[in-house]
Amino acid sequence: HGNIKAFISIHSYSQMLMYPYGYTRTPVKDQAELHQLAQKAITDLASLYGTRYRYGSIINTIYQ
To answer: Which cofactor does it need (predicted)?
Structure first.
C-alpha cells in the first residue's frame, strides 16, 4: 500500500524491541536507522519506567 514506513514490535513481557527481519540474517536497507531508533526508544523507556529492553533485528534478538 505504500503507507507503512516502519514496523517495530515491542514485546513488553519479554522486554524486547525488535525490527525486521525474522527470517534472514540479511539486514534491511535502513538497518542503521532502525537500530538507532530502537536504541533511543529503549533508553527513553528505561528513563521513564526503569525497564531494560533487548533490541535488534528479530532474528538476532530472539534466536541468539
So the answer is: Zn(2+)
